[in-house]
Amino acid sequence: MDIRDIAKHAKVSIATVSRTINHVSTVDPDLAKRVWKAIDELGYYPNTQARTLVSGKSRIFGLVIPDITNPFFPGIVQAFEEIAIQYDYEILLTSTGNDQHRMEKAIRRMIERQVDGVAIMTFGMEEELLEHLHFRKMPLVFIDVGPPLPLVSNIRIQYQIGVRQAVQHLASHHHRRIAFVSGPPELKSATARTLAFQNAMAEKGLEVPDGMIVSGHHTVEGGLAAFEQLAARTERPTAVMCSNDVSAIGVMRKAYELGIQVPDDLSVIGFDDIHLAEFVIPPLTSIRMSQTELARLAFHALLADVERTSLPPAGTEYFLTTELVLRKSTAPVRKPAAEPSKTHPF
After folding, report:
1. Is the pLDDT of residue 65 over 80?
2. Using CA atoms, how far apart are residues 318 and 299, in angstroms rounded to an integer?
3. How does residue 346 score in pLDDT terms, banded at 50, 70 and 90?
4. What b/e readout covers 312-336, taking b as 16+ CB neighbours within 10 angstroms?
5. What is the pTM of this model?
6. Residue 52: how many other CB atoms lie within 10 Å
7. Please, which residues bridge with residue 100 across strands?
8. Do residues 254 and 231 lie in contact, with contact meaning Cβ atoms separated by under 8 Å?
9. Is 229 exposed, middle or buried (0-12, 13-18, 19+ CB in 10 A)?
10. pLDDT tens, 210-225?
11. Which residues are CB-contacts of 24 (< 8 A; sequence separation ≥ 6)?
12. What share of the chain has pLDDT > 70, as a percent?
């Protein structure tokens, strides 16, 4: 079966069927309804490869994430796919496992499939791969790291807003010894979150002593090891902020193992506000970076560049804000117990 059968069944021209399937906006709505009805009645499935050859568009977007096991990224995938379905797009998904060779193979596969654009949600990108993709005039969207070039969109995360709210919240609860569990130093996003923490502490006139910023590598295991190191200090922190929620969960677990109660003895704040954050015990206070909004911005950035007739020479920027979400993992500093008063017999 091909579009000639559909045209005969719907009593329209072959050109009308082709334009309807390819979502050309000038098709008469009544004729389009007849075409879609015929497609449904005959059980016709368009040949996507043939459609790509005719239209020059595959209606596929590539989506690259670094780690499918990190709970932050499945939320992005789900939201991105839901939006893609609404616009009659498919997604070609790959998880690189933070491996450069795997990323190269994934990008090659996307080029072979002639995707219309690629959303790279990895918080980092190798220059050689960027040049390779941009050479093919393919729309690209990055988080923070894209260069100012045509067909390149950047989603700028406003880390400072949520981090400042978190530091102010802890300071209002009289916390002064506040530690920070950072992410991998090679990630620009992790460095940005650490810098936002340092700036927010300086704004409040709070010192960050040497050794109070420890890398947790954005993993549970990293959070465990980081807090073990912090807990061994002579003056243990009364609060810990983390570069992501996964490492914050590791901090909370290690605190439990050491007999340190959250939030009575230790306040903990994460970053990302993953779905799991509200179900750990106690529920985790976190800085929200909406996965749904991030996916929405990424998809529409690609779609806008696909449909543009003229391209901004320095690409396009979009902004995503962050905000503090209060739960039960933070509390005021516990005051030290007063020494019992001495009594004197008469």
Report:
1. yes
2. 12
3. very low
4. eeebbebebebebbebebbbebeee
5. 0.81
6. 16
7. none
8. yes
9. middle
10. 999 999 999 999 999 9
11. none
12. 89
Angstrom distance (rounded) from CA 293 to CA 215? 28
Q: What is the DSSP letter of 315?
A: -
Residues 6+ away with beta carbon under 8 Å from 60: 89, 90, 91, 92, 113, 114, 115, 116
The two tokens of residue 342 are 């001495």
Report the DSSP beta bridge partners of residue 63: 93, 119
- The rounded distance, in Å, linking the Cα atoms of 229 and 244 is 18
Compute the C-alpha angle 269/271/274, nearest 5°: 110
- Considering Cα of 291, then 256, then 219, then 175, what sign does the dihedral take? positive
Tell me the two tokens of residue 113: 């499939």
Residue at 26: amino acid letter = T
- 14-28, 311-325, 329-343, range with greatest mean pLDDT: 311-325
Residue 137's Cβ-count burial label (10 Å; 0-12, 13-18, 19+) is exposed
Domains in the chain: ranges and CATH = 3-55 (1.10.260.40), 60-158+291-320 (3.40.50.2300), 159-288 (3.40.50.2300)
Q: How far is CA 106 from CA 110, 129, 147, 332, in A?
A: 6, 11, 21, 48
Is residue 167 scored above 60 in pLDDT?
yes
Across residues 78-86, what is the average pLDDT?
Answer: 94
Angle at 55 between CA 11 and CA 81, to 5 degrees: 100
